[in-house]
Amino acid sequence: MTQQLLEKDGFRYIEKGTGQPIIILHGLMGGLSNFKGVYTYFSEKNYRVIIPELPVYDLPLLKTTVKDFALHLDKFIQCMDLDQVVLLGNSLGGHIGLLYTKLFPSKVKGLIITGSSGLYENAMGDGYPKRGDYNYIKTKSEEVFYDPNVATKEIVDDVYATVNDRNKLIKTLAIAKSAIRHNMAKDLPNMKTPTAIIWGAQDCVTPPNVAEEFNKLLPQSTLYWIDKCGHAPMMEHPDRFNEITEEWLHANNL
Fold first, then answer.
1. CATH of the domain at 220
2. For residue 45, what are the CA distances in angstroms to 16, 18, 76, 224, 242?
3. Does 231 fall in a domain?
4. How many helices (DSSP H) and strands (DSSP E) are in the chain?
């Protein structure tokens, strides 16, 4: 994504469009460009689409937690003078969106999660000792998608650089542990916010049964499947992802 980052009171983000605010929350290894299709499509459909750069590697180690990211999001929303937002998150971003919605339900009009952690996540885990092996990282990156060709050299290079940066690796492991600690199974039944669960049918990071569990536990949820799709539906099938999202937004008057 070539759009220039904006900055306000220390927050960095991109923004386009006017209307109902949609805040997009990227994942741990995912950048703002992962949502290019969503960002472009909805910013032309009477939505104000905002993607903040989350401080996944910038906070002190003890504050590198899902809860602190949710609190950071609240500060960003206050800074932008927003209210009644729609949150859309993938992977860790979905988890942050879920926790934010639990903490600040009156500020969230709707929630969309895809490949979200919060119940279970099969992370790279035992792959980190092999972090110096580029081909191994390439294989692990390809496994995130149903179509391995989606894992472009740029994506693989970014993951390789991240796991070979000692500071980022320590933060990555801290976030993974925090995500496990912040299991939301007991919280979800009390969350009444309308929620769309959009899942890749072949997701091997957060498998299909995770989506079914989210749907079972969230009272106001709707589950949508995208076939021949892995952990990042908005990247592998952006047109179908946008179609489902738009259908759900309209159904819920958002």
1. 3.40.50.1820
2. 11, 9, 23, 21, 11
3. yes
4. 9, 8
